[in-house]
From TrEMBL:
Keyword flag ATP-binding: yes
NCBIfam families: PRK14083.1
GO-annotated molecular function: ATP binding; ATP hydrolysis activity; ATP-dependent protein folding chaperone; unfolded protein binding
Domain of life (superkingdom): Bacteria
Name of the protein in question: HSP90 family protein
Organism per entry: Niabella ginsenosidivorans
Entry keyword set: ATP-binding, Chaperone, Nucleotide-binding
UniProt xrefs under InterPro entries: HATPase_C_sf, Hsp90_fam, Hsp90_N, Ribosomal_Su5_D2-typ_SF
Keyword Nucleotide-binding carried by entry: yes
Binding site for ATP: 36, 40, 77, 163, 308
The family this protein is said to belong to: Belongs to the heat shock protein 90 family.
Cross-referenced Gene3D superfamilies: 3.30.230.80, Histidine kinase-like ATPase, C-terminal domain
């Protein structure tokens, strides 16, 4: 293919369209210009400090006066400044950055995408920058307009090394420059910066960050860290944990929450990059199981995305996350010996999260296993209490099964652990592998029947005829009949459903919905029949009387009532057919009772 006229063309950029794109998509709020100006100032000071290590960074901000004739907004720094050719190269070319020259620059500077200054066009139609480079005695004024035009002038007057940005706020965004709105934002982003930030409103000047952040000072006491956490997050935390990593050069504090949290909960944090606030999201720094902590952390070497609101998801971030996970596990291992009261609080409140850690860390599991609480049919008990008092440890991995067996298991003297929660089934199986000397068995309603006492051979002969009748009555419901002794005596019957019958029910539902896979599942269903059990309690007085009834109609009616009652007690779903059976059986019993009353 040939080029037309052998000429090449350059892309054109619609600056107003780019500004709209930035304000609506790249930056999360119109106040982002505050962060971008602060970031550029900090990077300029860092660049100058490479030439003069004794430089004391200074950022001065003047807010505009109210009224149409008020002074403009001014943001000034004593950074390295720009030469004339750098103004053309870095200020006037979208996407070009003075901070993207080397790997060392990436470690030193916060921003490097060359688009941050455009955020000022979101709040102002005109940007005026006066700058003097540390390598030049002459200063320049760069004035840019939102239609894409700009001009450069040489300053006649002498100015100090550094940069001054002047903006005339749009009416629609003038509120962002008011002290009550602007000052909280500049504090929000810059409270941890080492550079002095001075703000002038009218005739008053105030330094916003006179005191360095206590969370970065190595000698700050735990009490002071907890007080800072309370002021920052309005929460009285259980404990504060110092944090430092090699990967990402992260430093800060992890706070242990004093209340339970869901695994899906997203906490608010304070994440800084080179001591400037980046985000309130965890940015992937925390392990997936660490939902019970908040953190205030600064990284010196992680990289930010183009919006500068998130960390880049790369190997360095993953390495930092791994170190933070190890540090948190190390704290949990040590706090048991350092402060047992705090350790107990953490266990009581966050045991589900600790189980998530233990499920993937055998060493950690061994350390805290005895102290972990588990829900059982006898209430919450620590694992130490469970293993010391019960020779057999039963567990249910399905919550509905646990609800069905807990009352009867209680009367049998058996302990059943509910491991239906996230991570707990994996955890109990891991414990079983770690401690094979423990007798740990899975329990279900069908397996519970195996713990009941069978009737004697003489009783089997005596009740053979009536049992045959009972089997006929319940055969339409895919049940086998059993007679057993079990507690409590006030429970006349129980119903259990096996896994195979559940599979059969699922297949039938699929067929009913005309699922295209129904045909392929037909052979499975043939092997999934007749696994339900309807067991009568020989300790129950009603059942003993039932087995002596000669009237087949009454025998059938009472059996059907007991069958549906057992379904309800076991919290199984009851179909319309079974409800109709129940109603008809009650009606029969009422009619038979009325006849007997009339005859009397």
């Amino acid at each position: 293919m040939e080029t037309v006229n052998n000429e090449y063309y350059s892309f054109q950029v619609n600056l107003q369209g780019m500004i709209s794109l930035l304000s609506e998509h790249l930056y999360s709020n119109p106040g982002t210009f505050i962060r971008e100006l602060l970031q550029n100032a900090v990077d300029a000071i860092a660049a100058f400090r490479q030439l003069d290590e004794h430089l004391i960074g200074d950022i001065r901000i003047t807010l505009p006066d109210a009224g149409p004739a008020g002074n403009p907004f001014v943001f000034q720094d004593n950074g390295i400044g720009l030469k004339e050719n750098e103004i053309h190269e870095f200020l006037s070319v979208i996407g070009e950055s003075s901070k993207r020259k080397s790997a060392e620059d990436a470690r030193t500077f916060i921003g490097r995408f060359g688009i941050g200054l455009l955020s000022c066009f979101v709040v102002s139609d005109e940007i005026c920058i006066e700058t003097r480079s540390a390598f030049d005695a002459t200063g320049f004024r760069w004035t840019a307009f939102n239609d894409g035009r700009y001009r450069i002038e040489t300053l006649q007057e002498t100015m100090p090394v550094g940069t001054k940005v002047c903006l005339t706020p749009k009416k629609s965004h003038a509120h962002l420059f008011r002290p009550e709105n602007f000052i909280p934002q500049i504090k929000f982003y810059g409270d941890a910066l080492p550079e002095k930030i001075t703000i002038r409103t009218g005739k008053e000047e105030k330094v916003l960050n006179e005191q360095p952040p206590v969370w970065l000072h190595p000698d700050t006491s735990k009490e002071a860290l907890l007080q800072m956490g309370k002021e920052l997050f309005q929460t009285s935390f259980i404990d504060a944990v110092r944090l430092r990593t090699e990967a990402g050069e992260c430093e800060g504090v992890l706070y242990i929450l004093p209340y339970k949290t869901q695994f899906s909960a997203r906490q608010h944090h304070r994440i800084y990059l080179k001591r400037m606030l980046l985000s309130e999201a965890d940015n992937g720094l925390l392990p997936s199981w660490a939902f019970f902590v908040k953190m205030v952390v600064n990284s010196n070497t992680l990289s930010a995305t183009a919006s500068r609101e998130f960390f880049m998801q790369n190997d360095l971030l993953r390495a930092a996350r791994k170190e933070i996970g190890k540090a948190l596990k190390s704290y949990l291992k040590n706090i048991r010996n350092i402060d047992f009261e705090i350790y107990q609080k953490i266990i009581q409140i966050h045991f589900l999260h600790l189980k998530a850690i233990a499920a993937e860390d055998t060493e950690f599991l061994s350390l805290i296993l005895d102290d972990l609480p588990f829900e059982t049919n006898k209430g919450f008990r620590t694992f130490k209490d469970i293993r010391e008092h019960f020779p057999v440890i039963y567990y249910c991995a399905d919550y509905e099964e646990f609800r069905q067996v807990q009352r009867i298991a209680e009367y049998q003297g058996a302990l059943v652990v509910n491991v239906a929660y996230t991570f707990e089934e994996d955890l109990i199986k891991k414990i079983k592998g770690m401690q094979p000397e423990l007798n740990i068995r899975e329990m279900s309603s069908s397996k519970l029947l195996e713990t009941f006492t069978d009737i004697s051979e003489d009783e089997k002969k005596a009740y053979r005829a009536v049992l045959k009748k009972l089997e006929q009555y319940t055969k339409p419901f895919n049940c086998v009949m059993q007679l057993k002794y079990f507690a409590p005596a006030d429970t006349p019957a129980i119903f259990t459903r096996g896994d195979e019958d559940f599979t059969s029910a699922t297949i039938k539902k699929i067929k009913a919905n005309d699922n295209p896979f129904a045909g392929a599942l037909g052979s499975i269903q043939q092997r999934a029949e007749a696994v339900n059990t309807f067991c009568l309690n020989m300790n129950n007085g009603l059942v003993k009387n039932l087995l002596t009834i000669d009237d087949d109609y009454m025998l059938q009616a009472i059996t059907e009532v007991l069958y549906v009652q057992a379904l309800l007690m076991g919290k199984y779903p009851v179909s319309e057919k079974q409800l109709l059976l129940f109603n008809n059986a009650l009606h029969s019993l009422l009619v038979m009772g009325m006849k007997n009353f009339i005859q009397i």
